[in-house]
Amino acid sequence: MTRPYRSVLYIPASKQRALEKARGLAADAIIFDLEDAVLPEEKAAARVTLARFLAEVDYGPRLRIVRINGLDTPWAREDAAVFGGLAAVDAILVPKVDGVAVLDAVAGMTDKPLWAMMETARGMLNAGVIAAHPRLEGLVMGTNDLAKELGSRFRADRLPMMAGLGMCLLAARAEGRVIIDGVYNSFRDHDGLRAECLQGRDMGFDGKTLVHPDQLAVANEVFAPSEDEVALARRQIEAFATARAAGQGVAVLDGKIVENLHVAGAEAVLGRAEAIAALAD
Ligand SMILES: CC(C)(COP(=O)(O)OP(=O)(O)OC[C@H]1O[C@@H](n2cnc3c(N)ncnc32)[C@H](O)[C@@H]1OP(=O)(O)O)[C@@H](O)C(=O)NCCC(=O)NCCSC(=O)C[C@H](O)C(=O)O
Ligand SMILES: [Mg+2]
Q1: Which of 23, 35, 88, 152 could form a disulfide with 54 if both were Cys (CB 3.0 to 4.6 A apart)?
Q2: Which PANTHER family does the entry mention (predicted)?
Q3: Nearest in space to 165 (alpha carbons), one of 211, 113, 114, 208
Q4: Which residues contact 7 (CB under 8 A, 6 or more apart)?
């Protein structure tokens, strides 16, 4: 059964109320952020606060990812030293990954699985080798930093992002990695969030990074298989089994062909639905 990644919530490590609140939130994963959401003068205190919360709070089945500061900052090594060895940390997220050297460096500081922020122009161009890094588990799109580097403007259709999103998706799928879409900044605009989640889901992303708890319900709904999709998956599996028993390699269901590749897709849908149901238990 594969773990769901529908909703991946950022929490600034400096915000105690948010760290407290997160234990009851319906996020599939949490990114505890030491980087951009934390002011330079608060970095050291945020590290201490986060280490205490991770030691004391049970975040349940949520994947616990810590985003450390960039290796070109004075905080990264201490971040990796503290959180790279904590049992309550499932993975280390490295910001602004532009090639494999930075992953090699962090891999030398911790044994945890690594995740990469994909948010620089060079990172897009090197997506294939980054995704192939042997310690890498997942990629997270950083569309704010990418837009800043590109000099692109916000568009609801995300046309300026498409080349980068597509390259990272190809790289993630080629290497069998998890890939999570970027954040939607207007956190009170749920219609805009839904449209962007639908776009990301249809492109193939596993889920969406989020900045506010009010965004969780939309992402959890959009990135979960719907009841209709689950029912169709069951019917496809059944139709193909019937065709196979009759000595045929292709079934026809609702006027469409069903081949073994569609059965694999249907099984993946059922696996995701099962994993989501198991989280709710
Ligand atoms: C965006 C916010 C600053 C808004 O905060 P606030 O005005 O306090 O919101 P609310 O009053 O509506 O909050 C209601 C309650 O929810 C809790 N809360 C708020 N945000 C979170 C959160 N992220 N996780 C958990 N809980 C949260 C508040 O504490 C309130 O609780 P209560 O008191 O019980 O009512 C704020 O949401 C925020 O700081 N969000 C995170 C911002 C962040 O992490 N940014 C960095 C990541 S984005 C990024 O860097 C992407 C990438 O790198 C790129 O380049 O694109
Ligand atoms: Mg960023």
Answers
A1: 88
A2: CITRATE LYASE SUBUNIT BETA, LYASE BETA SUBUNIT, PUTATIVE (AFU_ORTHOLOGUE AFUA_4G13030)-RELATED
A3: 208
A4: 26, 27, 28, 29, 207, 208, 210, 215, 216, 219, 220, 223
**Coil, helix or strand at residue 10:** strand
C-beta of residue 103 within 8 angstroms of C-beta of residue 136: yes
- Given pLDDT bands bounded at 50, 70 and 90, which one contains residue 1? low
Residue nearest to atom 54 of ligand 1 (CA): 142
Answer yes or no: is the C-beta of 258 below 6 A from any ligand 1 atom: no
- Asked if residue 17 has its Cβ within 6 Å of ligand 1, the reply is yes
Total Cβ atoms within 10 A of residue 76: 21
CA angle (60 as vertex; 88, 221 as ends), nearest 5: 125
Say how many C-beta atoms besides its own lie within 10 A of residue 125's C-beta. 14
* Residue 205 pLDDT level (bands cut at 50, 70, 90): very high
Q: 35-80: per-residue pLDDT in tens?
A: 999 999 999 999 999 999 999 999 999 999 999 999 999 999 999 9
Quote ipTM for the complex: 0.98
143 Cβ inside 6 Å of ligand 1:
yes
119 is in an annotated binding site: yes
Ligand nearest to C-alpha 23: 1
What are the pLDDT digits (tens) for 6-23?
A: 999 999 999 999 999 999
